[in-house]
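Field: COMPLEX_INPUT
Field: COMPONENT_COUNT = two
Field: RESIDUE_TOTAL = 548
Field: MODE = joint
Values follow.
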Amino acid sequence: MSFIEFHDLTHCYNQGQENEHKAIGGVKLSIEKGSFTAILGRNGSGKSTLAKHINGLLLPTAGSCLVDGKDTRKAEELWQIRRQVGMVFQNPDNQLIAAVVEDDVAFGPENLGMEPEEIRLKVNAALRAVNMAKYRTFAPHLLSGGQKQRIAIAGALAMDTECLVLDEPTAMLDPQGREEVMRTVQKLHEERGITIVYITHFMEEASVADRIVVMDKGNVAADGTPREIFADVPGMKKRGLDVPLAAEVAWQLRHQGVKLPETILTEDELVEALEAYTCQSN
Amino acid sequence: MLSNITIGQYFPGNSILHRLDPRVKVLLLFFFLIEIFLFSNAVAYGIFSAVTFALMLLSGVPLRMLLRSLKPLWWIILFTFVIHLFSNPGTPIAQFLLFTVTWEGLRMGCFISLRLVLLILMSSLLTFTTSPLKLTDALESLLSPFRRFGLPAHELAMMMTIALRFIPTLIEETDKIMKAQQSRGADFTTGNVMKRLRNMVPILVPLFLSAFRRADELAMAMEARCYRGGVGRTQMKSLKTGAIDYLAIGGFILLTASLIGVKVLA
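Field: COMPLEX_OUTPUT
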């Protein structure tokens, strides 16, 4: 059984009211433990709504969402699910609660009722894992956006989270902050085997995932490895999305009759393929 | 212009006063203030002044900073002094028109002013040596017995914490909105009071809107991190009462005993 399973998940906002809005309809999807899945989709495609179901912040209006075999609709399982699935949101300012960094990281474990000494250990370990230990006593408003997002990740780690759901964590950051967050997420995935569900608008970020799920109009439009997804340039454009620059150049060249493989994703691969091509044609 | 703000007047340090359990500090201050009103003979005032002065030195906070806390209340102190100077019957010293200055009035005026000065100094000693966060924790802990009468102690403390966290963020945001409106020609610096107040509206509307959105997102983030009110919640930095706290309590009991002694003898 997969770690996260959506069974015909449907969510309607304001159900039964005049302004009823169906954000996602009948999503069937399963995410394996220890995987790194990126979710892509244009604004309003339902990707954030989908993410909020994973730890029960939103409950399905039809269908179900199972996390580690537990149904998010069961109130008694909800707290265990939230402990296993940590969430990082888009706005770094609106998810830090305490006025001191270490107090904020301690917020989750405090809610779980752990002993003070244990919380201290977890907080220190979590801050080290995101490389923010020396900012322990800082006030959040003195940190950069990337640092705030890493604190938010530490907050989830301190609760021994097994899965991180990141909802466009880099959308409000500068390139340096984006890099910091991405590196932290990859490190946690590789070293600790934490399951990552990463929602993003940036194709370069999505290309490091094991798997990409493309959402469109409230349902899954495409699902596969980054190479498979980005090879389908027309399909991506149709869904309002871009592909990484190297993949697009390769696609355009292929159309002009240059014989290049369909799996090009990075600039290095493109350079290599072009070199091979020029050697061949000489 | 809105940057570099500090909340409260906490002066970081590591003096005995800084290290005391904030709960003990709050309680002792409370009782000390009561005693200042209970014991009103000259010797008692001498003792109170000496204790206050000693604590001021002990706190490691620059005396000038402490004395500056008297500044906003300077007029009230002077006013109280003058009222007492003229309103007490007794042996006259001098006469101004209808008012007579008496020895008793002078004495009372001095005492009452001194009383106010001591009250202010001692209270500011608490806020100078205790960070707002520790004060919040102390209040939560001290108010928790009243929970059974329906007082939401945890919720009040949580509100204080969130307010402390978001004051700098909202100030930054106000700054940003003001600049944005100024760049479109808004004017916040000229005109009479009414005009200036009206000009504040384009700042307040976006500020409130964003504050509500923040509140919404923050609530969701708190829920995602298993927050479900104060029940079953622990604290990483739980307050501990140690040796210096018992020493302080002992010192206070000694002070009270000697004050009672002085009163009985007098």
